[in-house]
Amino acid sequence: MGWWCAPMMLLLVPWLPGVHPCLLCFLAPTDQRQLCRYITGTSAKDTQHQLCLEALLKAAEPLASVIVGEEQHMALQKIIMDAVDFVKKQKGKKSFQVSLKEAIKKIWVKLSQMKEAPACIPPCGNQKAARVFQCATCHIMHCPFPLDCPVQEVWARADEVVTLHCDVPFAVPPNWSITWMFAKDMRTQDLTLFEELQTSEEGPLSLTLWGPVQGTFACRLADLYEPFIRKYFYLNVSGQNVEAEQGLQARLRVVLRWPHDVAPLHPMAWLGLGLALGSMTLVMLLGTPTVPLGAQVTVI
Ligand SMILES: *[C@@H]1O[C@H](CO)[C@@H](O)[C@H](O)[C@H]1NC(C)=O
């Protein structure tokens, strides 16, 4: 079915007197008068003509509940115009009342064969595929959600592998791109605070972190023209970090106190570890392939 009643939406759009639904979204007042002139053979001042216009409005009323996917908008228009043509062709064969009733019936039958538009899926994202044309207002309605999703908490240990998923529960338009961003140490949705890590065309929808870093990761999905969703993940990294860093400093101090003629076992390794766990990792996040100890970001 390509239409359905959406009481919530209709509640948001109170009935406006003078707004004639659906049938008349595509049939301007002049077209209505033309139709009634043709049907009745009378001018606008004539009672027959007035009755014809009233019948048209009354017949249109039940169609106010019709909502079709935005993409079906043209198909809906064709259905309505075909029905108007049908009424015209019945002139002289049947009464206007009867042919109008039949025309409306035909409209409902065709509407019932149309594909249903996908529903808006909360809580976020500009879901173009779920846009609908609403007969009650003769307007396209967008899903009433913001671009920014709420921040998801991700708890992780510093020695864990964490994968963040940017997939969305609605149809993604073609030619999309994904951008990953990071705001170190912060729990934020302020885009000015993020560093861009990586953009890819129709790329993988997940980001894997070997050795997660405290802060907010964000992914942004965009089509050719604009972003359509932004997801946020606050990585609350526990364990190891502080102790490891303290332990490391102690070991580095030991290394520094070693006599010159006695080489420590792997001084560069300790240094690498210090870099990896210390004030961190944007370098690593940017995917430097030679970061020691596997602390780097890889996209799968
Ligand atoms: C991180 O998680 C810990 C333990 O659940 C919690 O106590 C702390 O408040 C969290 N930190 C932030 C900034 O949310």
DSSP strand content:
15-25%
- Return the average pLDDT rounded to an integer: 78
Helix content: 25-40%
The biggest beta sheet, please? 5 strands, mixed
Question: What's the structural blueprint in terms of helices and strands?
Answer:
Elements (H helix, E strand, L loop, with lengths): L6 H6 L16 H12 L6 H14 L6 E3 L3 H17 L6 H17 L19 E3 L4 E3 L6 E10 L3 E5 L11 E8 L10 E7 L4 E5 L4 E8 L4 E12 L2 H17 L9 H11 L4 H4 L11 E2 L2
Parallel strand pairs: 4-10
Antiparallel strand pairs: 1-2, 2-3, 5-8, 6-7, 6-9, 8-11, 9-10
Helix pairs in contact: 2-3, 3-5, 4-5, 6-7
The chain binds 2-acetamido-2-deoxy-beta-D-glucopyranose.
The site of 2-acetamido-2-deoxy-beta-D-glucopyranose has 2 residues, from loops.
